[in-house]
C-alpha cells in the first residue's frame, strides 16, 4: 500500500508537472521559455535554500521517533518550526543579494517578488510533506498531489487559452505554490502539534541540528550542481534559448528516472531509518541497488531510442534541439541513480558531513567547468559538465561509503540486469530505423518491456524477494495464464 500511495504521489506530480511544462513551452517562444525556466529555477533554489538539509533529516527523524519515542514528535515539530522561520529570513537575504548583483529576468520586479512569496509557501509545504513521509502517511501525501497537481494543469491550460504571456504563467506558478500549502494544512490531520519539551532538547536537539547543518551543505551544493543549474549559467551567458532546451531535457530525463524507479526510492529513507536499528541496513541497500537499476533500465533504453519522437510529439518541432541533450541526460541521470546505495549508507550512519565535503568540491568544480566551457560552447557543454560531475559524485560516494559497510551490487548481479536490456536494445533500434513513427514509440516500448522482463527471469536477475513476488503472481493469475507463468518461472533462481 505504501508503494502504491508513493506511486500515486510521484505520478501525479511529475505527469502533471510535465503536462504543464509542455503547455507553457508551446504557448511561449523558445526565448520566453528560456526566461521562464530561469525564473522558476531561481524560485526552486529559494525553496531549496530554506529547506536544505531539513527535509531529508525531518523524514529520517520522524521515522525514528515514531518508532522509538512517539511522545517526542510534537516537540520535534516545535523545533523545526523555529528553524524554518530562521532559515526563511536567511534565504530571503541571500536571494535578494543574488538578484541585486546583475540578474535581469525581463519581467517586472513585482512578478519576481510574487514568485518568491509563492516559493516560500512551497517550502513550508515540502517540510510538512517530509513529516508525513516520516510517519509513512503516503496516502495523505498522495491526496494532496491529486488535488493540487491537476488543478495546476487546468490553470495553466486556461492561462494558455486566454492569457498566454510569461507574466501570467509565473502568476499561476505562485498561486499553485500557495495552494499546495493550503491543501496540506487542511488534509494533513496527522501532522503533530508543536509543543516545547526540555527533555527532547536534551536528548535529540543537538544531534538533529548537527546533522541538519551538514545536510544543508549537501543539499545546497548538490542542488545547485545536479538540478537545472546550467539553466542559470546558460542564461547568464546569453544562451537564453539553450537554457529552455536544457530545462526540457532535464525535465524529461528526471521524470523518466523518477516515475519508475522513483516509486521504489520514495519509500527507502523511512525504511533505512528503521533498518539501521534492526540490523538489516546492508540487505536493504543491496536490494535497493538491484531494483533501482532494474526499474531504470525499463525507461532508459526506450527513451534513448525514441527521444526525437517524444520531443516532437510533446513539445513540437521548434524544440528538436533538445533531442541530443536528452539522450545524454538520461544516461547521466541513470549514473546518478546508481549512487543511491552509497548515499543511503552514509545517511543511515549520520555521515552527512562526508556528503557535504564531497558536494562542496563538486560544486567548486562545476563553477570552474561552467566558466571555462559553458560560456564558450553553450548547450552541449552544459550537458557534458553535468555528466562529468555525475560520474565524479558516483565514484566519490561509493569510495567514502565503503568504511561504513557499503557494498556495491556485485558485478555478476549487475550484468544480469543490464545485459538483458542491451539485448532488447538492438531490436528496438532496428525497429526505429525501419518505422520512424510516433505510434512505434508506444509499440516498441511495450515490446522492449515484455522482452526485458522475460530475459530478466531467464538470466536469474531477481533476488529471493523478487522470486516470491513473481511466484505469488503466478498463483493469483487467471487460469489461462498459470501454465505459461509456471513454465516461465520454472527453475527461477537468484544467482
Short description:
This protein is mostly helical and about 500 residues long. The chain folds into two domains: about 1-225, no CATH class; about 230-425, no CATH class.
Please, could you describe this protein's structure?
Helix content is 84%, strand content 0%. With 495 residues, it is mostly helical. The protein folds into two domains: 1-227, no CATH class; 231-423, no CATH class.
Features:
495 residues, mainly alpha, 84% helix, 0% strand, globular
Mean pLDDT: 85
Helices and strands, in order, run as HHHHHHHHHHHHHHHHHHHHHH
Distance between the termini: 29 Å
The level of helicity is over 70%
Low-confidence stretches: none
Please render the helix and strand layout as text.
Elements: H1 2-27, H2 30-51, H3 54-68, H4 73-102, H5 109-134, H6 138-162, H7 166-187, H8 198-226, H9 229-236, H10 240-259, H11 261-265, H12 268-277, H13 281-305, H14 307-315, H15 323-338, H16 340-348, H17 352-377, H18 379-401, H19 411-434, H20 438-458, H21 464-476, H22 479-489
